[in-house]
C-alpha cells in the first residue's frame, strides 16, 4: 500500500512508536507494522502510544469510552495523560457513540467537553484499527521526520532555562509528571529541598500519595548497585 512508502520506506528516517504491550492484541500494532513503522513494546503507566518526546496518545474504542464515563475512570485518565505529556491526544475509535449504550447524550457531550476544555486534550475520531494506525503513523512522521523530534519518555535537557532544568531534574523522580514537578518546586522552593524531603513532607504536595512518596525516597536513599545494569 502507498502508506508503506510514506511511513517506513526509502532513505527517509524510519518512524518509531512506543506501544503499551496491552495494545498488541488490538490489531492496531499489526496495522502499524504493515505501514513500516518500527514498534517498541513497553509497559506504559500512562497512555497507549508515545509518538515523540511530547506526544502521548490514549486510544479508546467507543464501548470503552462509554464504560469509562459510567465507572468514572475517564477524567482520572485524562488528568494523568495531560500531566504526563505536553501534547496529549485521545483517539476515539469506532462508531455509534450515542447509540451503543443507554447513556444520556448530555453526559457524553459533557465528557467530551471536559477533555477538550478542562484538560486540553484533542479528540481524534477514527472508524477502526486501520484508520487509527494511519493517524498514529501520520502524527509520528510529522513529529519525528518533519519536526525532527525523538521518541522518548522524557526529553533531553538541551537549551533549557534554569527553571526548566530544575523541573527536568525533579521530573526524573518516579511517578513525577511535569505538573507534579512544578508543584514540588513551588512547595519546597529548591531542587535540593525536594530531594531532601521526607515521605510525610512529600505527601503534603497535591498528587503525591503515600506509595509515590515512598518510591521517591527509595530511589533517593537506596545505594547504587552497578551490577544491576
What is the fold's blueprint, element by element?
Elements: H1 2-7, E1 16-20, H2 28-34, E2 38-42, E3 49-50, E4 55-61, H3 62-70, H4 74-84, E5 87-93, H5 105-118, E6 123-126, H6 129-146, H7 162-171, H8 178-188, H9 191-196, H10 199-202, H11 210-221
Parallel strand pairs: 1-2, 4-5, 5-6
Antiparallel strand pairs: 1-3, 3-4
Helix pairs in contact: 2-6, 7-8
How would you characterize the overall build of this protein?
There is one protein chain. The protein is an alpha/beta fold and 229 residues long. It folds into two domains: 2-146, 3-Layer(aba) Sandwich (Rossmann fold); 162-228, 5' to 3' exonuclease, C-terminal subdomain (DNA polymerase, domain 1, Orthogonal Bundle), CATH 1.10.150. It is built from eleven helices and six strands. It has a six-stranded mixed sheet. Helix 2 packs across helix 6 and helix 7 crosses helix 8. The chain is globular. The termini are far apart.
Largest sheet: 6 strands, mixed
Number of strands: 6
How does the helix and strand content classify structurally?
Answer: alpha/beta
CATH class categorisation of the largest domain: Alpha Beta
Strand order of the largest sheet: 2-1-3-4-5-6
Work out the radius of gyration.
Answer: 20 Å
The CATH architecture designation of the largest domain is 3-Layer(aba) Sandwich
How much helix is in the residues? Answer: 40-55%
| Mean pLDDT level | 88
Shape annotation: globular
Secondary-structure element pattern, one letter each: HEHEEEHHEHEHHHHHH
Tell me the span between the first and last alpha carbons: 42 Å
In CATH, the topology of the largest domain is named Rossmann fold
The count of domains is: 2
Low-confidence segments, ≥5 residues, pLDDT <50?
1-5
Number of helices: 11
Please state roughly what percent of the residues sit in beta strands, choosing from under 5%, 5-15%, 15-25%, 25-35%, 35-45% or over 45%. Answer: 5-15%
